[in-house]
Amino acid sequence: MSNDMTLVLGATGKTGRRVAARLRLNGTPVRAASRTSPVRFDWSDPGGWDAALDGVTAAYVVPPAVPGPVHEFVARAAASGVRRLVLLSGRGADTWGESTFGLDMRSAEDAVRGSELEWTVLRASNFDQNFDEDLFHAPLVAGALALPAGTVPEPFIDVEDVADAAAAVLGQPGRHAGRVYELTGPRGLTFAEAVELISRASGLPIAYKQVSPAEYAAALVEEGWDETGAHHVAEMFVLMERGKLAGTTDDVAAVLGRTPRTFEDYAVRAAAAGAWLP
Ligand SMILES: NC(=O)c1ccc[n+]([C@@H]2O[C@H](COP(=O)([O-])OP(=O)(O)OC[C@H]3O[C@@H](n4cnc5c(N)ncnc54)[C@H](OP(=O)(O)O)[C@@H]3O)[C@@H](O)[C@H]2O)c1
C-alpha cells in the first residue's frame, strides 16, 4: 500500500474504476476523476486540471482520445508535486510505425516517458471486456460480430489483470520506475474463437463474420462514427494482421507474480452476469 494521494483518471471507465476500487481497498487515498465524476477532469479543459492535481503525489493516466494534452498535463503535474505516473497504453506501441492507429496513446507515452517524474507504462493487448463493456457488446447481443480480424491470434487480457497490475505498480514506489510492461493474456485466440467461447458460455447463437477493413469502417460510420474515428479502429485490425502483436509475454507475472486470467474465465463470469442476453 502507498499513502500517496492518487489521482485516477478515466475513473468511470473499464480500467480506472477498477484501479480506484483496488487502491481504496488497500487504504490508499484516491481522487477518482473524469468528466462525469464528482471530481471533474476534462482533457479539453486544462483550466480544471490544477484542482484535480492539488495534493496528489501519484496518478493513473488513461490517455485522452486525441494526441497532445498529456504533455501539458505532465508539466502541470510536476509543478504541482506529483512524483509518479502510471500510464495505460497499447500493446507494442513502439511497433505501430506509420499506422494512423493509436496516435493518442503514442503522444501520451512521449509525454510521460520524456518527463522527469517516476513513470511506468502499461501497454495492454485488446481487453476481454471489449466484448461486454465496449465496442463489441452490441453486435454480440444482436447475434453476430463482423470484424476484419482474420486468423492472427490476439492475446486478449482481462481488464481485472490490467487493474491489478496498475494497483500493484502504484503501491510499490520505485520498484517499476522507467519500466514498460507489455500486458497480455495467457494465450492467443482469434476473434472467431473468442466469439465461439462466448457463444458456448452464454448458450446463445452468436456468430463471427469476417469483413474487410473498409467494410468495417463503413459499418461504423453507418452506426454514427465519424470517418476518422472509424478509420482508426479499422487500422488497429490491419496492424494486428501483421502478427507482431500476436504473441504472449510474461509481464503480468513479472508484475503480479502469477499467470494472467484466461479468456474462458472471463467468458464464464460475463455470461453468468447475463452480459449477452438480448
Ligand atoms: N479497449 C482495449 O482493448 C484497449 C487496450 C489497450 C489500451 N487501450 C486504451 O485504453 C484507453 C481507454 O481506457 P479504458 O478502457 O479504461 O477507458 P474507457 O472504458 O474507454 O472509458 C474512458 C474513460 O475516460 C473518460 N473520458 C472520456 N473522455 C474524457 C475527456 N475528454 N476528459 C477526461 N476524461 C474523459 C471517461 O469518463 P467520462 O465520460 O466520465 O469523462 C471514462 O472514464 C484508451 O486510450 C485506449 O486506447 C484500450
Automatic annotation (TrEMBL):
This is SDR family NAD(P)-dependent oxidoreductase. It comes from Nonomuraea mesophila. Residues 10-173 form the NAD(P)-binding domain. Gene3D superfamilies: NAD(P)-binding Rossmann-like Domain, UDP-galactose 4-epimerase, domain 1. InterPro entries: Ergot_Alk_Oxidoreductase (IPR051604), NAD(P)-bd_dom (IPR016040), NAD(P)-bd_dom_sf (IPR036291). Pfam families: NAD_binding_10.
